[in-house]
Amino acid sequence: MEKLGLYLPEILLPREGIDLTKWAVIACDQYTSEIDYWEKVKNFVGDSPSTLHMIFPECYLEEEDADQRINGIHSVMRQYLKEKILSPQPPGLILVDRKTRYASRNGLLVAVDLEQYSYEKTADGHGCKPSIRATEETILTRLPPRIKLREDAVLDLPHLLLLINDPDERVIEPVARSRERLPKLYDFDLMMDSGRLAGFRVDDHQLLAGIISGLKALAAAEEKNGDRLLLIVGDGNHSLAAAKAVWEKLKKGLPEKSRHHHPARFSLVEIINLYDRGLHFEPIHRVLLNVDPGKFFPALQSYYNNRCFVDFFPEKTGMENALRVKEEERGNHRIGFIQEKRFGVITIQDSAAVPAIVVLQPFLDDFTARCPQVKMDYIHGEETVTKLGSRPGNLGFYLPTFAKTKLFSSISTRGALPKKAFSIGRAEEKRFYMECRRLS
User: Fold this and answer.
1) N or C: which end of the chain has fewer CB within 10 A?
2) CA 115, CA 146: separation in Å to the nearest integer?
3) Rounded Cα gap, residues 126 and 178, in angstroms
4) 336 and 349 part of one domain
5) Distance (Å, rounded) from C-alpha 335 to C-alpha 317?
6) Residue 37 has what pLDDT?
């Protein structure tokens, strides 16, 4: 597995008797505009042992006590180790079974080698070519608080979801089908009506051999296509980027011999098959605020050198019908929009087999940079786009559903997608903190 950048982690789990429903908490980058959610979590958990005390919910990042919070997190980590709140497990993989109100999915908990990951871009702008890559643009200004949190942390808590391109279901699914013969490590209801979580130790040598064989086959297929891409980051890229930044700084002061197995060189992640039936991609739409349509549409056509066409419709059904009729045509990207009381379809001629947002976002960034009074918001749900886009001075874009089949090829050929290109499921479907790993 080492040649693939993967390792069997030494995992820590809450000791017997810990209330796991209070222990496990959703990813820190969720509900960032809903402090009420996190206050409810805080009240529910109280003083009970919980990952809540070891994470920094992003809704609090702008508050003045950030440094105090981070110091408190580090203190709790050391306390939990000292009081043996966490129980060490034999080195190995864990099969994760996550059930939600909407769907269920399976994953494998592994450690990834940060030497095999990069979020940076090369001079040509297409990104580096390691085996593990970011799916979306990394916003460097978002890294400092995460770096500070990671630097003195003694524990690694993952909310990272990494994806493999396995349409034939050769890696994870055979293990999931054999779960009944695996030792169950935990099985409990998640807080805030977020479903259920179960974990199984993968101690079957035949299953382990199948996992390794399947991963090697995926890697070989990518290399045959002229690339070595094996894993892409579905959720948590900025946390993984922070871990990478900390490791790059730390390793400079380490002798070469100590670098190979230093715990900070690795990060605990959950690997999921891109084609898992419980993994749903949700488009993240765009709304421009305070925009003049008389300037926007000419600028749009000019940017694409007249390879762009705009059709208007008095009702939403007209737009939807136009998108439906033409969606099979190749060589074009079509995006629906709403501008006050009218709807429309933007057609951009581009033969690349990439998501529409890859083609549209560069123009939106260029336009908002040249028109500082125009603000761009990122929206979940078509209803909200319609509501905001119908207001005077606003322009809303309905991004099409993200096609899974285009994701790996797009990352391979064009590098990371624009920020907020897509979302993996709803907020309550995101990964919960459960397992830990020592960093020192």
Assistant:
1) C
2) 19
3) 40
4) yes
5) 14
6) 94
Query: Quick one: angle between helices 237-251 and 144-151, nearest 10?
Result: 60
What value does the mean pLDDT take over residues 101-115?
Answer: 94
Give the residue numbers spanning the domain of 367: 281-422
- Residue 63's pLDDT is 87
More confident site: 368 or 137: 368
Residue written as token pair 């051999």: 209
Q: Which two tokens stand for residue 382?
A: 């078509």
Mean model confidence pLDDT for the chain? 92
Residues 382 and 411 both lie in one domain: yes
Q: Which residues pair with 95 in a beta bridge?
A: 108, 200
In total, how many domains does the chain have? Answer: 2
Segment 69-94, tens digit of pLDDT: 999 999 999 999 999 999 999 999 99
State the distance between the two ends of the chain, measured CA to CA, in whole angstroms.
23
The predicted pLDDT at position 121 comes to 64
- Dihedral of alpha carbons 58, 62, 64, 70, sign: positive
